[in-house]
């Protein structure tokens, strides 16, 4: 039986664990490509650090984020997290801006599985 239940991947791991964050991005992409399921990605709290376009790891993350977009994964960033960390979208890679907690609640109500890292 095929399970095409949509999945929301939430990353709360920030710059303290870039290797882990990189693994989560790769896993998210593979879930979409090989699982053929709808997958969305939300960066929340310290997790928004991976969307910063002006840091040492930015080229690597930028490539992965672009590959995710090309695979049909919607990428979102939490508005409150941006404000709390003093960041603006002009410092970030392109992403949809959402209210993180509300977004997670909506996705659960829509039947999404939620994976958090």
Oligomeric description of these chains: single chain
How much of the residues is beta strand, in percent? 15-25%
CATH superfamily: DsrEFH-like
Order of helices and strands: EHEHEHEHE
Query: From the alpha-carbon coordinates, what is the Rg to the nearest angstrom?
Result: 13 Å
Q: Quick one: how many beta strands?
A: 5
CATH topology group: Hypothetical Protein Ychn, Chain: A
Described by strand count, sense and barrel closure, the largest sheet is: 5 strands, parallel
InterPro entries: DsrEFH-like (IPR027396), Sulphur_relay_DsrE/F-like (IPR003787)
Organism: Sulfobacillus thermosulfidooxidans
Pfam family, one: DsrE
Protein name: Sulfur reductase DrsE
What would you note in describing this structure?
The chain has about 120 residues and is α/β, with parallel strands linked by helices. It has a single domain, classed as Hypothetical Protein Ychn, Chain: A (3-Layer(aba) Sandwich), CATH 3.40.1260. It is about 40% helix and about 20% strand. It contains four helices and five strands. It has helices at about 20-35, 60-70, 80-85, 100-110, and strands at about 5-10, 40-45, 75-80, 95-100, 115. The protein has a five-stranded parallel beta sheet with strand order 4-3-2-1-5. Helix 1 (about 20-35) runs parallel beside helix 2. The longest helix is centred in the first third of the chain and has 18 residues, at about 20-35.
Give a quick precis of the structure:
By secondary structure, the chain is of the alpha/beta class. The chain has helices at residues 18-35, 58-70, 79-84, 100-109; strands spanning 7-11, 39-43, 74-78, 96-98, 113-116. It is 40% helix and 19% strand.
């Amino acid at each position: 039986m095929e399970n095409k239940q949509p999945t929301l991947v939430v990353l709360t791991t920030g710059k303290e664990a870039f290797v882990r964050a990189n693994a989560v991005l790769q896993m998210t992409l593979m879930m979409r490509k090989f699982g053929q399921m709808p997958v969305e990605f939300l960066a929340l709290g310290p997790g928004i650090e991976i969307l910063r376009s002006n840091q040492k790891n930015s080229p690597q993350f930028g490539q992965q984020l672009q590959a995710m977009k090309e695979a049909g994964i919607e990428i979102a960033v939490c508005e409150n997290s941006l404000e709390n960390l003093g960041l603006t979208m002009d410092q970030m890679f392109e992403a949809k801006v959402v209210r993180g907690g509300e977004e997670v609640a909506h996705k659960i109500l829509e039947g999404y599985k939620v994976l958090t890292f």
